[in-house]
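Changelog-linked ticket: flavin-adenine dinucleotide example.
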Amino acid sequence: MTSTVPPTPPDRQRDFVALVADLGPTFAERAAGYDRDARFPHENYADLRAAGLLGLCVPAHYGGLGADFATYGLVSEELGRHCGSTALTFNMHTATMLLCGQIADDLEMSPADRASHERRRVAMYAGVIGDGHIHAQPFSEGNAPGATAGVTTTAVRVEGGFQLSGRKIFASLSHAADRHNVICITPEDPTIRLMSVPTDSEGLSFTGDWDPLGMRGTVSLTLVLEDVFVPSDAELLPPGVFDQVAHRWPHFYLTLSFTYLGIMRSVMDFTDGYLAGRIGPGSRRENPQKQAGWAEMQVSYERAHALARHVLADAGVDPSPTQVRRAWASMVSTMETAPELASLAVRVCGGRSLLRPHTLERLYRDARCGATMLPWSVEACLDRLGRAGLSGDEDGGPHA
Ligand SMILES: Cc1cc2nc3c(=O)[nH]c(=O)nc-3n(C[C@H](O)[C@H](O)[C@H](O)COP(=O)(O)OP(=O)(O)OC[C@H]3O[C@@H](n4cnc5c(N)ncnc54)[C@H](O)[C@@H]3O)c2cc1C
């Protein structure tokens, strides 16, 4: 399995990770405030924009940094290490860049569709690079676990474009994104369409309260679309391409997991510092039981991390059934190991580690959220893994 897009060279990968690492301490300092107030990390986004990172996965000839999917994974992990909410929302933004860039380049399109796609993405990239646009990706409606199932938001054809109506739950970057990229269907056809809706569109609103357990800075309200007009050029992928992603580029749905790898790294850093006495009430390094817990944590972390890195190298078009199964396994491993590791850290470090301003209690809450994220929630991945191979149909349906 490969991608038609050349891989980012290792030295460039290191440069991009270093860009985030430089911002990291400031992001880590701000994280407690975003969490306490359930407030979007606007200041972090200003810094990401100034560093050129909104264009991380925008190809270089459109003015971006030109990073590929695998590089995104490494950068996202580093971001998650400093602020989970920033990393998870950055995922929504960057996933759209990847969908319209590297992933679209790997998929089938007619020459006419390819030409119109090119025109549209040039405009989208210009918005990101020139005007600092932030993109969101509210796909979920809460009706079904599959990436292309249960979509009831409609796009009705009207003069010059479409009129959109529907509701999206957990629309991360509510009020913060410039564009909300929703999936929908036309009444005459079940093909999934991807439409980009400007945040100031008439008929677009947000409802509900936002006071969740974790990932509080994502500000993921319910997005309501009531007869919202978008021009034809708002369609970000030609019809049928989004459905192809689920069959042919399923590793796209892994992108969420890198945030949680970063959170795990942060749990490890915290525990190391706490047990060694660099933070907290004093050293606990001589206690054999704590050493045993710390050893257990290292094994869990390394196992999840190694599998995630292996799978990152697999990402591309037309994976083998084995590669897709491995990706599901990695998703389960990351999304379950993160909260387990945070829970173990609480036990090993002890009661005072839970007190603010220590970061562990926030990491513990943020880590718990990953398993619920569709379409590759832990349950959905386990369900697919349980059937894979046994029914002999692993090549037959969409992988997401
Ligand atoms: C912090 C946070 C941020 C998020 N941000 C975004 C975002 O930006 N964009 C976005 O699109 N989504 C986002 N989500 C939503 C997420 O991806 C899920 O869609 C959401 O958690 C589902 O919630 P639910 O209560 O509907 O759960 P679920 O119980 O998972 O239900 C969803 C539907 O799928 C069915 N279902 C679920 N699991 C199974 C199963 N194993 N077998 C059969 N049926 C099943 C349920 O019956 C139901 O119909 C976010 C979630 C969180 C927690």
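Closing comment: Example verified and attached. The CA atoms of residues 57 and 97 lie 6 Å apart. The chain has three domains: 10-134, 154-239, 249-387.
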